[in-house]
Amino acid sequence: MSMNNEISTIMSTGKMSTLIKKTLKQKLAVLVPEWDGRVLDVPASGEVLAGPCAVVAFAEEVPKSAWAGYRRIIKISPYARPEDGGAEQVEAWSALLINGLHQVRLVDEAGVAFTCIYLGSSDSDRVDAGSGMITRSLRFGVYIPEDSDPSLTETGDGWLAALQNWTQQEIGSDWSVYGDVWPGGYDTPSVLWRLAGCSTSVAGTSALEVRQQWIGHVLTDHSVLTRQTVTRLVEQLAVQSRLAITETGGEEYEGKTRYVTVDEVTADLQADAYLNGQIRLTLQHRIRRPGTNVPFIREIHHSKGME
Question: 242, CA 20 to 30 Å: which among 26, 141, 155, 257?
């Protein structure tokens, strides 16, 4: 990377961090009206905080995620006066912040979407020496997808296309269905499918069994809708048993339809929707082994019988 590119990256990251913090401050002011808009940066040395308020501070950066994008840790610390309830008030405000930010999609003034994930409290309740107020630091991961080159994301993967098409038909046009990574302008409700792994094994003298493991992320603004959609997709994939793929390359298969079989599908309803995904899906398909002359006379759908 050239020096100019490095400077540009630093400047864009700094601008992004400023917008993220501004957006979070606005959100916090709405979540806790008792602060009367007092959502502050880290106070300067010797500065004494006044009244109930909150402090927002950036902590460590963490490596980028291949599908979630840029990640940054941010600390949010509510401050309560002893006469206003002290530790009990901090506990109540912390619950409001967790409920109002965890797995919530926010959009800054530049139109960039990002998601907050609650990571826990970094320390115990403590008394602020200057103000005498009680405080606690809550850690959130902030995840910002990066805009990617469309030519890199459009891989032509027939398995992914089949999975996306089936999902779109199943849940309707009101949903967005993404592949590989969360895009920079991701929306909700949405589903992301990404490839987690693949393997092959010999299946007889003339065939190979190809297996792919996929992870599905179901992201909505409502926990009940999220749970219902995850359950519905898992059930319908099991009922569907196979997905149709229309070939787009190779003279032998051009324009023909083949099928991949749903081998196993499970869901973890407690999993983080944005970062980890709730659905685990294994698809499989048998192909002719290279270099064999034995006619491959039929599609075999493992454990499903002949169609």
Answer: 155
Per-residue pLDDT of the chain (307 residues; tens, 9 = 90+): 443 343 334 335 667 778 889 999 999 999 999 999 999 999 988 889 988 999 999 988 777 888 988 888 999 999 999 999 999 999 999 999 999 999 888 988 888 888 899 999 878 899 999 999 999 999 999 988 876 554 444 445 789 999 999 999 999 999 999 999 999 888 899 999 999 998 888 766 777 888 999 999 999 988 899 999 999 999 999 998 889 887 655 444 455 778 899 999 999 999 989 999 999 999 998 777 666 554 544 444 444 443 3
Alpha-carbon distance 260 to 158, whole Å?
A: 10
Q: Tell which residue, 11, 224, 20, 270, has the closest CA to residue 141.
A: 20
Here the tokens at position 159 are 């398995």
The pairing of strands 39-40 and 53-65 is parallel
Residue 291 three-state SS = coil
- Residue 271 φ then ψ, to 5°: -70, 150
Instruction: Mention every residue, 6+ apart, whose C-beta is less than 8 A from residue 299.
Output: 258, 259, 286, 307
